[in-house]
Specification:
The chain is an alpha/beta fold and 375 residues long. The protein has two domains: 255 residues, Zn peptidases (Aminopeptidase, 3-Layer(aba) Sandwich); 111 residues, Alpha-Beta Plaits (2-Layer Sandwich), CATH 3.30.70. Helices cover 30% and strands 25% of the residues. The protein is built from nine helices and 16 strands. The strands form four sheets. Strands 1-2-6-3-7-15 form a six-stranded mixed beta sheet. β1 and β2 form a beta hairpin. α3 packs across α9. The radius of gyration is 23 Å and the shape is elongated.
Length: 375
């Protein structure tokens, strides 16, 4: 077992970087000290106080191309009861437990260790500069993370978002549409509901229609069907007052054949059936993504995995990752990673130690193979 690598991941897990509330200063301080100890330069980008991003560039001899490798350093909160303390980094039955073990500190640990390994062995690449971007705020939209950070990362040719599980290669991703819908009725005494317009009552009717209204879409071989989730419903002031106001928030996951404007128009058509005024606000939007799985970046990775006796799995992500933002910048990219399936955002989150150890081998071999490709 590579004890140094295991200890590195344990150390990262023991540093809380929960988001919300959102504060990555301690984990970035740890990474700064780690890189200082091996005499590697880095740069900090902070777009909001206590929300730092760390970038480290390993230059090649010829600098023909630039490859971005980006895991995120924040985690979701460690809620609920855990078998092992969520910031313990406990090892049990060949697994390392703790918040962020899979999502996404295993990928952070592998990148940091690989930087050290390349420097220590004087293993300078010939053609590809490696740009490691450890980003903050991924769990709440990346407003202080990869979105503004990409503006400062110049001349990136290719990218790997390190945020998938069990060596999965992500070539398709559902789009995301988050909406807040406000309804405005008319308040009245609760004993005389006929004198008012109950926003909650009509909100329920509208939601009932939305839930039972099928989406129009073309089936995608990897992304399955679109989904709708009602994440919040808030309204009313007091039990004996006809509710004059409510709002609800929708999480809609799109497939490539769908159009967000059409979806919003469909919702408006339903609302207009009822005697309420309304406002619709787009809280977040990301386009669905499709990547050519015969892309040379992916072909090389599949060959590396086969040599390591790992069956390549070309698949999709139903959730949203920062891959969207790389594609928007015309960076040829895909998602890949070393977490353990079903563990992201879960209680008793863990990662298999074998994924950690094999991950370093796979990533190093892949980078070297890619470097040869550009000779």
């Amino acid at each position: 077992m590579n004890k140094e690598l295991v200890n590195l991941l344990q150390s990262l897990i023991r540093i809380s970087s929960e988001n919300p509330p959102g504060d990555e200063t301690k984990i970035v301080l740890f990474m700064k000290n780690y890189l200082k100890s091996i005499n590697v330069e880095y740069k900090i980008y902070e777009f909001k106080k206590n929300r730092p991003n760390l970038v480290c560039i390993i230059k090649s001899k010829n600098s023909k191309k630039r490859l971005l490798l980006t895991p995120h350093i924040d985690t979701v909160p460690a809620t609920g009861k855990w078998k092992f303390a969520p910031f313990s980094g406990k090892i049990y039955k060949d697994r390392i437990y703790g918040r962020g073990a899979t999502d996404c500190k295993v990928n952070v640990a592998i990148c940091l260790y690989l930087i050290k390994k390349l420097i220590k062995e004087n293993n300078i690449l010939k053609n590809i500069d490696l740009v490691f971007a450890f980003s903050s705020d991924e769990e709440t939209g990346s407003r202080y993370g990869i979105i503004p950070l990409l503006k400062f990362l110049k001349n990136i040719d290719y990218g790997i978002v390190l945020d998938s599980d069990d060596f999965d290669i992500i070539v398709a991703q559902k789009g995301l549409l988050h909406l807040r819908i406000e309804l405005f009725g008319k308040e009245a005494h609760g004993a005389y509901p006929e004198r008012g317009i109950n926003a909650i009552e009509y909100g329920i009717k509208i939601l009932n229609e939305l839930i039972n209204r099928p989406f129009k879409f073309k089936r995608h071989k990897l992304l399955n069907k679109p989904t709708l989730n009602i994440g919040r419903f808030v309204g009313g002031d007091k039990v004996n007052i006809v509710a004059g106001y409510c709002f609800f928030e929708l999480d809609i996951r799109l497939v490539p054949s769908m159009d967000k404007e059409y979806i919003i128009k469909d919702i408006v058509d339903i609302i207009k059936k009822y005697p309420v005024k309304y406002k619709i606000k787009i809280l977040a939007y990301q386009d669905p993504i499709e990547i050519d799985e015969n892309n040379f970046l992916i072909t090389i990775l599949k060959n590396v995995l086969k040599r390591q006796k790992i069956k390549p799995n070309i698949t999709s992500s139903f959730g949203a990752t920062v891959l969207t933002f790389l594609i928007e910048k015309n960076i040829s990219a895909f998602s890949f990673g070393f977490g353990s399936k079903g563990q992201a955002h879960s209680k008793n989150e863990f990662v298999k130690i074998d994924n950690l150890l094999k991950g370093v081998i796979v990533l190093e071999e892949y980078i070297k193979e890619l470097d040869k490709f550009f000779k």
